[in-house]
Design goal:
Elements (H helix, E strand, L loop, with lengths): L3 E4 L5 E5 L4 E2 L6 H11 L9 E7 L5 H13 L2 E7 L6 H6 L2 H4 L6 H9 L6 E4 L2 E6 L12 E6 L13 H10 E9 L4 H10 L2 E6 L6 E6 L2
Parallel strand pairs: 4-5, 4-8, 5-7, 8-9
Antiparallel strand pairs: 1-2, 2-3, 6-7, 9-11, 10-11
Helix pairs in contact: 1-2, 6-7
Length: 220
């Protein structure tokens, strides 16, 4: 599928898929969206302890590098697992300007390593951040009671509704520990109902710039 790199409204870049008219991140601001959805409403629920994170849709690595930066600021020990069926090339990743946008250019070598590392191996990127990525489809995830937090960042329901199915959210529910949290930019009623059907308690929150709402789900 064709890919093109575009600049979003906050100056940060993302990958756009013109055949689907779908982007990896919000056109209203890639970095802004990541911070609002996954850091403000996800990571910041966890204070001063070790946390296991599963990212559904590793993509360009934006959420991972922001989490690494925030883990150091919050003194969190993060074990991060990113799932990606169709990896972005190292060359494409390095065309992103995330570290400049984040005023953290010193982290560029770590961002590059995220994309260079082989799949299915664990690496220590910093004292606060262990990293692994898996080249599998979402329906192949079989973790049980393993994660405290899930970043659910799949392509939108409009283009890939199968990624937002009850089957997938059942796997998410089982992958989370008790009292675990799932956050996503999505806010569709059909997605909320699929989450609730498998046992999640779901709340809608104010969305990032350009989007009215997002959702956060809890495994009670």
């Amino acid at each position: 599928m064709r890919r093109e790199i575009i600049t979003t409204s906050d100056g940060s870049k993302t990958i756009h898929l013109p055949d689907w008219d779908e982007s990896y991140h919000s056109k209203h601001g890639a970095v802004q969206e990541a911070y609002h959805v996954f850091i403000k409403n996800g990571l910041r629920l966890f204070d001063n302890r070790s946390i296991n994170i599963l990212e559904i849709g590793f993509g360009t690595g934006l959420n991972a590098i922001i989490t690494l930066i925030e883990a150091e600021k919050q003194n969190l020990k993060v074990n991060y697992t990113g799932i990606e069926a169709y990896p972005v090339s190292v060359e494409e990743a390095l065309e992103m300007n995330y570290l400049q946008s984040l005023d953290a250019i010193e982290k560029l070598p770590l961002f590059e390593k995220m994309h260079q590392f082989p799949f299915a191996e664990q690496f220590k990127l910093s004292d606060n951040f262990n990293f692994e990525k898996r080249n599998i489809f979402f329906n192949e995830i079989d973790d049980i009671n393993s994660f405290d937090l899930i970043y659910f960042d799949a392509f939108g329901f409009r283009v890939q509704p199968e990624l937002w199915s009850t089957e997938i959210f059942e796997k998410m529910f089982h992958a989370l520990k008790d009292k675990g949290v799932l956050v996503t930019y999505a806010a569709r009623g059909v997605v909320k109902r699929s989450m609730q059907e498998v046992g999640f308690s779901v709340e809608k929150l104010a969305g990032p710039p350009g989007k009215r709402e997002m959702m956060r789900a809890f495994k009670m």
